[in-house]
Design a protein that fits this description.
The complex is a heterodimer of chains A (89) and B (605).
Chain A: E1 2-7, H1 16-26, E2 32-37, E3 40-43, H2 47-52, E4 60-66, H3 70-82
Antiparallel strand pairs in A: 1-4, 2-3, 2-4
Helix pairs in contact in A: 1-3
Chain B: E1 12-15, E2 17-20, E3 23-31, H1 48-76, H2 79-91, H3 95-108, H4 112-128, H5 133-136, H6 139-153, E4 166-170, H7 175-182, E5 188-191, H8 199-206, E6 211-213, H9 218-221, E7 227-231, E8 236-239, H10 243-262, E9 271-272, E10 278-285, H11 292-296, E11 302-306, H12 308-314, H13 321-335, E12 339-343, H14 369-374, H15 376-389, E13 394-399, H16 405-425, E14 434-439, H17 442-446, H18 448-452, E15 457-461, H19 462-470, H20 488-504, E16 508-511, H21 513-516, H22 521-526, E17 531-534, H23 539-547, H24 551-562, H25 567-580, H26 585-590
Parallel strand pairs in B: 3-4, 4-5, 5-6, 10-11, 10-17, 11-12, 12-13, 13-14, 14-15, 15-16, 16-17
Antiparallel strand pairs in B: 1-8, 2-6, 3-7, 7-8, 9-10
Helix pairs in contact in B: 1-2, 1-6, 2-6, 3-4, 4-6, 7-8, 13-15, 15-16, 24-25
Classes of the chains: A alpha+beta (89), B alpha/beta (605).
Chain lengths: 89, 605
Amino acid sequence: MVTRTVVVANRAGIHTRPASMIVRAASKFESDFFIEKDGYEINGKSIIGVMTLAAEQGAELILNFSGPDETEAANALATLFEEGFGEAR
Amino acid sequence: MTDRSSPNTEEVIVAGKGVSPGIAIGSVYLYSRATIQVEEQQIRPNQVDNELGRLDHALKRSQRDLSKIISITREKIGDDSASIFEAQALMLIDEALVGEVTQLVKSDLYKADYAVRVVMEEHRQRLAAASSQYLRERVHDLEDVEERLIRHLRREKLISAIDHDRIVIAENLTAADLVLFSRREILGAAMDFGGATSHVSIMARSLRLPCVVGTHNLSDHAESGMEAIVDGFRGTVILNPTDETRRQYQLRQKRFARLLQDSQHLLSLPAETLDHRVVSIRANLEFKSELGLLEEYGAEGIGLFRTELLFLMEGRLDVGEERQFDTYRAINETVGEEVTTIRLLDLGGDKMLPMAHREHNPFLGWRGIRVLLDRPEVLATHLRAILRASAFGSLRILVPMVTTVAEIRRVKELVAEQMELLSQRGQAFDPDIQLGAMIEVPSAALMADRFAAEVDFLSIGTNDLTQYVLAVDRGNDLVSDLYQEVHPAVLGLLQRIVDAGNRHDVPVSICGEMAADTRIVPILIGLGIREFSVAPVYIPHVKRIIRSLEYEDVSRLSETALAARDAAAVDELLEHWLASHPYDLLHLVEAEGGPLPTPEASNLP
């Protein structure tokens, strides 16, 4: 299992568009992907799950990956968060 | 014959605002976004397979709807607004929806409709607890998916399944809704909310659909199948018209069709008064896809290109230089030798990005050039993209919401800096690009001469100017009757701006709804305005009336209007004048017609 801690950087938080970017990126990998926020965990490949995290700018999230391509998946998803989904910060 | 005994067949007239000209007569399709009633219902164990089959069918139908919506939105509006629907399509294959609903049907023997409601309700509640208002509002995306799915489960008619030739009535419609409806060749639309400059109104005009907005509670009184008339000229909607009303409107409909046909010959003619005063009529545009309208309606270039959409669609301020450049360049190339006026990003007021601050008084707050000067990096990118596009035609820059000359000077400095940078990069631009100020704030109007000394052109934004001068929010029903474009205070400022332009030999153009109102155009010509910018669909009508005016005559009319005691007196003056000069759209469409029912005569219960 690979774990990464990320912070939501874009100002609007994880709304519909970033959520769909996360899900589409995660679905390219075989590994399971879960996102944890304040002790609450959702499936990172579920758009409804990701949206209902209601993660605002500054929120700290723990990304958990497990599976054959967990490292690649972790790198790809962490990059998305770092880039703030290409949105204003 | 109309049955007078039943209240459901009584003629009802509702007043709103006409935002797209024309008359539609037909039967109503009531588009309801209201939450559908779903009751707890169970099935027998032997019905589980059947129920899951229904679910599968509804999921497929919903998926098909969305792919259609995605492709039309991409084609008509752009990739970015399509991304919302792509996210909705992802929800339809989400285990958090499909898996949980399937589970509930199997284990609790819930009917699929109810299971969908239960599952989505839980997700919605979690999102509704978010502290950010923007995130909370994403609940609508979940609701859209839920509604679509439940309607398909019930095999109810959805947008994509309505009959042809209907009048769509709704509490609220989005521009995307209207695009979808237009594929079914609808006749017209009316909605309880909305304003003339909202996207849906602009879309209605592009699609040439008669449309009335701001009809209050019309949607509560309309029913699908009922007969209705949408009068996009007067801004009224009539439900259950009497035979006489229908006859009157059919007459007007024919007359308008003939008028449109006649306006074909106007295309190649100049907008010139009888005494040879030449005026130019340009187009207000917002979508790249509207470019075809320029030729269709004979526009002499673009007087106002709104850049907001490009940014709102991406939901961010830092839209890349290349992406902006592509759009501006395409526009400038299409327009060719005529003028292309690009207004700098005018966010704020009612056009907000999600990251904006919450303000008590957004119209008096962070908007227009104020936002851009606070975000120099955003403005720099914006200017570079526009400057690069200026190499491909005759482009000019319009600065919105200026209140002091210092703002114009600062923009000029930034333009010079970006030119320097582009030169270093070896990229082409027009070094003599014109810069203009949008006059839409009383201080700028009062000091128009100071602005005229600083810029190459002035452009009057009458919508904002009127609301700022009269301190009236026209979206507020309690005071909207005080929103009077012909108020002598407004006309006096227009006069002042025109005079300032003349003194400094700087052209003054007018954009805003007033410029497209054929009733008011005579006064504007009389005030000395020689450049108009209006929604393309109004160009032939504005041209027609200008060609029937005599400048000498209308300048006297304007003088009288300026001296009037209030807007009501100007209205009276105009009514009198138009009676002897019946060239405005309403007179032309209504000539020889009998009386029409008015909202005062029969209002909503």
